[in-house]
Amino acid sequence: MFVALPQAVPDEYLGIAAGQELGAVGCLRVGGQREVENDARLVLGEGFLEFLVISRIYGRQQPGREEERSATVDLVEGLIDLPQDRSEVVSLAVDVLAHDLDPVAVSDLEVLVAVRLNPAAGAVIGLKLMEDRVVGAVTDLEANVLHYGEWGVTTHEPATLSNRLADMIEALILESGIARPKLLGVGIGLAGAVSSYDGVVYSSPFLGWRDVPLANLVEERLGLPVFLDNDVNTLTFAEQLFGPGQHTSDFVVITVGRGIGMGMVLNDEVYEGVRGGVGEIGHITLDPAGPRCDCGKTGCLEALASDPAVVAYMQDGLRRRGEPETALPTSLADVIHAAEAGDTLAHEALTRSGWYLGIGIATAVNILCPSLIILSGEGVVAGDYRLKPMFDALKAHTFNGLLQGVEIVVQRTDDRAWARGAASLVIGKVFASPRLDAEALEAVP
Questions:
Q1: CA distances from 397 to 123, 187, 298 (A)
Q2: Chain segment 217-234, per-residue pLDDT in tens
Q3: What letter does residue 44 receive in the DSSP assignment?
Q4: Topology (CATH) of 247-412
Q5: I want to staple 444 with a disulfide (CB 3.0 to 4.6 A). Which of 32, 65, 243, 333 is the partner?
Q6: Domain 121-236 is classified in which CATH homologous superfamily?
């Protein structure tokens, strides 16, 4: 994880730049020849992290600087290990939040200051908002769940529901015992066109919302920073920071469950699009004459391959057989159980869903050609009934050679994982990677 530099860095700190990302370890490179006061403290992450900035710490001894080096060592109380052989690389440990940071020694000819967040140094809250309920969790800074809760939703009226969300968050804080000053913020994920830039839900078919400033509504009640994004994007943040995507620059997360969605990491950044309109793979049209989708269109991938689509397909088939309503499945689990019992219609419903899902994923590969695809969501529990035809369709519909070298990881997502994803949104935003101009960095004397 990178730790963000502040927006305005004083001139005397221009020798500090973001280093290479190595898993959950970030690096700050100490470079340049500019003078830095020995006792200067540079505040990163908007005051959350404090780093002692040490002047002129290099791999080789500089004539006339012995006294300065000695004073520096005294200042940090031995946290700096200066080798006897001054031609060796200097190892530097960093003091954060009164020693709350796990010190990590990094050696390099240009002296790297490694920083690794102590997961216990703060906490965040993540919520996933669904049409009938909300799930939420308090997590540490590695998105480990410390406390979890679920609540029902009885209204979609924006003002009322935002107050209800604030009440849920207050309950999580109280029940978890987390000190309020330790909280960095709240993340909320939900399906639809959701803008992380301005915290507005521009369209959510499940909730019937348009242009709802949900982040501001909740933030006004809480007095805490509130971050908002599409729910699959929040899951993508979790995979990028802590999951299979943490060592990959370009990957996609595709979820299948109540709906079908996609999150994208391109060149190490979660791609957000305009007005939150990104990754709506569930609404590509595969059959213009197909069933009506919740979005109002017909023949969308979601209307053909989501969990409700599987249930609806089997229900329609049973009705045509003359089966009573009491014999109809009401959940994906019912269809899976029927398939396991040898019901050919159930098997057909799952196979059809998997085939269409494979076509949708092939479309993503043909456009993006990512190195990694993470297939997630509650719907993967159907196993080979759905996944085998999915892989068959994926191979059949991907452009020649594009699938070669693409790694596909299948992992089930439960409610806790969605809440953890929303918490990861906060972690990803608060400790965002700075974008530095390489030429400007090289020009620093």
A1: 44, 37, 22
A2: 999 999 999 999 999 999
A3: E
A4: Nucleotidyltransferase; domain 5 (3.30.420)
A5: 32
A6: ATPase, nucleotide binding domain (3.30.420.40)
